[in-house]
Amino acid sequence: MTWLVTGGAGYIGAHVVRAFAKVGLDCVVLDDLSSGHRGFVPEGTPFVQGSITDTDLVADTLARHGVVGVVHLAAFKYAGVSVQRPTHTYTQNVTGTVSLLDAMASQGVDAIVYSSSAAVFGTPDTDLVTEQTPTTPQSPYGESKLVGEWLLRDQATAVGLRHTSLRYFNVVGSGTPEIWDTSPHNLFPLVFDALLDGRTPIIKGDDYPTPDGTCVRDYIHVADLADAHVAAAQTLAAGGSLEPAYNLGSGDGMSVREIMTAVARVTGIDFEPVVEDRRPGDPARIVASGELAARDLGWRMTYSVDEMVRTAWEARSAHR
């Protein structure tokens, strides 16, 4: 029983592949390596280089490897950059998902776990986001992920697709020193790269309506996130039913400045971050309840913030 992991050579996808292996399930990875790395794919895992927008390639991959379900992580994931590149974002995230769903339908593959985002909520008018919170995305990225959820819903009506979407925000840490977050936009690698280069880390905006003026987010460890994807896949494979979407949240969240303090504490490098202008498309606060995911997927956070920083720092430092 093989699962296709789109974007499986990326930071999150490579952890998902390892989480599948941990429970004895086979994977095949499809990735165009636009942001992923061939070396992140474990030796012995089949790898296909290509884009999800290539419907024929996706269909051929599904057929050749006897795929029974898909974990769909491949996407252009940067909310701030999506404001400057909306058409690129929609092509990768919406057109790409349409292509994937067409390929799945052509090969009779009827199960998908979709990597969505808390960005679908925009800046919610509530202290704690639940699955019933209205979706009001504020960036092309958030909009594209919400459209992806709609596509799954409509395809379920049309052809009986079995699906669920996992919504989450800042993914951090590392489950193995072999994989680290190489994004040029995410907070942890930006801070670590600055420290390794002898520069001062930057906070993008400290005038948000939050207790210390900096953005508040859920930060979840990538290994916990990967386990949630596998739990969802196993439930669908066993014929179980899942909710259309789950929030993978901490229930409390942390501010960017609090993360900076934790980085200084764990690394032993004392610094005072430089404050610059806000980054376009960033909501002030998104903190979600994970209660529904705990009920159905056994979701829980097993890493403290210091462990998140430590595992991420160790992995990044090993590849400086």
Automatic annotation (TrEMBL):
It is an enzyme of class 5 (isomerase). Pathway: Carbohydrate metabolism; galactose metabolism. GO terms for molecular function: UDP-glucose 4-epimerase activity. Belongs to the NAD(P)-dependent epimerase/dehydratase family. It comes from Cellulomonas fulva. This is UDP-glucose 4-epimerase. The gene is galE. Keywords: Carbohydrate metabolism, Isomerase, NAD. Its cofactor is NAD(+). Its EC number is 5.1.3.2. It catalyses: UDP-alpha-D-glucose = UDP-alpha-D-galactose. Residues 3-249 form the NAD-dependent epimerase/dehydratase domain. InterPro entries: Epimerase_deHydtase, NAD(P)-bd_dom_sf, UDP_G4E. It holds the Pfam family Epimerase.
